[in-house]
Amino acid sequence: MLFNDPVFLFAFLPIALIASYAARALFGRAGALATLVLASIIFYGWWNPVYLPLLGGLAVFNFVLARFIVKERSKAAEGLATALTIFGVTVDLGALAWFKYTDFFIGTMNVAIGTSWTLLHIVLPLGISFFTFQKIAYLVDARRGEVEPHSFLEYCFFVMFFPQLIAGPIVHHKEIFSQTHEKNAFRFDLSNISVGLTIFLIGLFKKVVIADNLAPLVSHAFGAAAGPEPMGFLLAWQGMAAYTLQLYFDFSGYSDMAIGASRMFGIRLPLNFDSPYQSASIIEFWRRWHMTLSRFLRDYLYIGLGGNRHGRVRRYFNLMATMTLGGLWHGAAWTFVIWGFLHGLALIVNHAWRAVFPRRIGAWWSLAIARLATLLFVALAWVPFRAPSLEAAGHLLKGLVTLPDAGEWRQMPFALLALIVAVAGLWLVPNTQQWLANYRPAYNYGLKEHEQDKPLLIKTLWSPGTRQAVLVGLFAALSFLSLQRVSEFLYFQF
């Protein structure tokens, strides 16, 4: 079931809200938890019930194993805690590898050593990349003794809660258990409804009005890149720019909808995006883009490899390994590996530059240049990320430096104006959490964070009122008018 599907919007979500509030009133927190776990199972099974045993089986396996890990930690020399953790992580990664990378491995072997093994064409279960990382973090933290007491029902809610189940944010157990333990958890709250619905409708607008209308431009350009004909200058730049915008508005739209839907049930999810295209460096970009994935890669892979504790060369190796594996996590193709490698290389260059030139950016023009350079690199790196093959990526990149023909020169002013307007919007207009900062719109965002990074334009904060209701109603109306064609979110394929 998709967040932009009328079945979800006008049936599933309202019914789930009414049922959870009723269960909370009649049976307390446990009743609300059970109702939401059941709703999440229905939500996931709507896509393909065949994979429900996988979702439930991995949940039971990790919960039981974590109990054994905690028990072993209390023994002399911590018993088998480490061995059990390694076993659990291996099983989780093994499940992910089987579904996501088996055909990639077979295809690579066929090319590398000339075998002719048949591809299995395994269907990738929705959300497996995301809920696998959640479970791994949970096991590792159980080994570290950092998981607070909780019931099996709370655990199921943590790993199955439908707003974040399919494509994140990748929620940490501390963020969920700290809220499910609250005395007033899951009670009806009009403020939660109004704030959550506002965030949800902003996300829906991003997806169906902006991202989906950019999709044809992207498909046309990258389809042409996969063909034999030379790529024109404008078509190549149109494809790269349109995909840069489409991916952001599609995924940040999903994240807003996840955060908004969750807030309606009284649960705050963490941010996943914080205006990443305003970043003045690649280091800053990865603090703002897919923030919960960045957090996982940092805490459970980069630091696990040694982080920056063993000298500069080892630090750079760890950065490259983390980003390359992060690229492979996104998809079983060499295009994603190349994308991860490029970002790893950029992070190394960025850190090396800061080691030599530690001064911060000062003047507005130097900040603008840094932002433009960062955005250009990110956009260029999106080309192999989106391209169906490395050959197609090379074809489009070559088009970017092809001399425009006479017709393209005539179209250049309009294309340049559209690009300027798009970049100005990304840099100047407040993002969702900045607009709703008064109401702590996310687990890790409130007025304090807003003061540290204020928007450059439209500094008025959201509050319940007629003008805000009219604006959000306009978002909703435009979104509902665009629901004739329901499209999947881009990150569902990862």
In round numbers, the mean pLDDT is 93
The counted number of beta strands is 0
What number of domains?
2
Helix percent band: over 70%
Number of helices: 19
Cα separation of the termini: 16 Å
Enumerate the spans where pLDDT stays under 50 for 5 or more consecutive residues.
none
Shape: globular
| Class computed from helices, strands and strand pairing | mainly alpha
Query: Gyration radius, to the nearest Å?
Result: 23 Å
- What is the string of SSEs from the N terminus onward? HHHHHHHHHHHHHHHHHHH
Q: Largest sheet, described in full?
A: none
Percent strand: under 5%
What does this protein look like?
By secondary structure, the protein is an all-alpha fold. It folds into 2 domains: 6-188, no CATH class; 192-280 and 361-493, no CATH class. Helix content is 70%, strand content 0%. The protein has 19 helices and no strands. The radius of gyration is 23 Å and the shape is globular.
Keywords:
494 residues, mainly alpha, 2 domains, 19 helices
In short:
With 494 residues, this protein is mainly α. The chain is 70% helix and 0% strand.
